[in-house]
Amino acid sequence: MRRTKSDILYDIIDVLIKNNGKMKPTRLLYKANLSYTQMQEYIKQLIEKNIVEEEEDKKGKKFYKITEKGYVYFNELKKVKDMKNALGL
Amino acid sequence: MINLNLYDPSNYLALELSLIFLKIVAVLIVSLFSYKAYNITKEKKYLALSTAFLTIMFSFILKVSSYYFFLKNALCLGCIGYELFYLFYFLYIIFYIFGSGMLVLLYSEQEDNITLIFLATLLFLVSLMSIKNFILFSGFEGIIFGFITLKVIEKYNRNKNKNAMLTTIGFGLIAIAHFLKANYIYSPYFYLAGELLNILGYILISIVVFRIFNK
């Protein structure tokens, strides 16, 4: 079944949360089942909304980290997902 | 003993009016939370869901208004109020059919323009015919909510959970309620049973949505 935009956003944040709130791009791409273009598009949106932030580790490698606002947004998305499942939409 | 005659202002009408007010609250809850879901996700289907339930809510308000004009002129046959009663009752039917029609379009996930125009025309024609034929209106609504129930069951089978089961029962009750109301000519008790199941259905759906957003 085709995932909607909110499904994909939910999956990205869910994967991040399950990995202590941070993850490297390649692993995120694999775990959230995204194409490279999709990940770029959605991560850009999440960074703009201050839900996810981009940081670098000691070796200078990029990783994504969920913000406090991200946890709140995830809870809201979870409610919408529950409503969607309950109403069979 | 309650007189269950339809449109009898002194008896059953008061009971039905209070039931309609409960339905208005239940439908408004679903509409508001659907709009909240739209605000979070910006997905059009939640806006459509909210609009559909809001349209149904307006239909209930129109029904209440029609009863007001009926009650006001109950002892004055041929007064202008009777025309207003019919006008509001007709608007109630149109709004209800279009609200439930929007739900059908949402659940059928239909996006083809020709099909949409065909369905909109069908809904309008049924609305026109329903003003003189309550059985047609109730039967048609029974089919509409029956279709929605089948769609919800289909999704429930994929991700089984308690909430999905409750909304399935809710939509199912509304469908049964309309079929029961279509049989009101045999006994007014069919109408009363239908109205009670109808409100139970809407309340069940609203409780599920309310609980999800207030965890």
Helix and strand arrangement:
The complex is a heterodimer of chains A (89) and B (215).
Chain A: H1 5-18, E1 22-23, H2 25-31, H3 36-48, E2 52-56, E3 62-66, H4 68-87
Antiparallel strand pairs in A: 1-3, 2-3
Helix pairs in contact in A: 1-4
Chain B: H1 12-41, H2 44-72, H3 80-108, H4 113-130, H5 134-158, H6 162-181, H7 188-213
Helix pairs in contact in B: 1-2, 1-7, 2-3, 3-4, 3-5, 4-5, 5-6, 6-7
Would you kindly provide a written description of the structure presented here, covering whatever features stand out?
The complex is a heterodimer of chains A (89) and B (215). Chain A is globular, with a radius of gyration of 13 Å. In chain A, α1 packs across α4. With 89 residues, chain A is an alpha+beta fold. Chain A is built from four helices and three strands; from the N terminus they run αβααββα. In chain A, β2 and β3 form a beta hairpin. Chain A has a three-stranded antiparallel β-sheet with strand order 1-3-2. The mean pLDDT of chain A is 92. Chain B is mainly α and 215 residues long. Chain B is 82% helix and 0% strand. Chain B contains seven helices and no strands. The longest helix of chain B has 30 residues. Chain B is globular, with a radius of gyration of 18 Å. The N terminus of chain B is likely disordered. Classes of the chains: A alpha+beta (89), B mainly alpha (215). Chains A and B meet through α4 of A and α1, α2, α5, α6 and α7 of B.
Please provide the ordered H/E string of secondary-structure elements of chain A. Answer: HEHHEEH
Spatial gap, N to C terminus of chain B? 43 Å
Q: Could you say which structural class the secondary elements and strand pairing of chain B correspond to?
A: mainly alpha
Query: Low-confidence parts of chain B, pLDDT < 50 over ≥5 residues?
Result: 1-11
Interface with most residues: A-B, 16 and 31 residues
Oligomeric state of the chains present here: heterodimer
Helix content of chain A: 55-70%
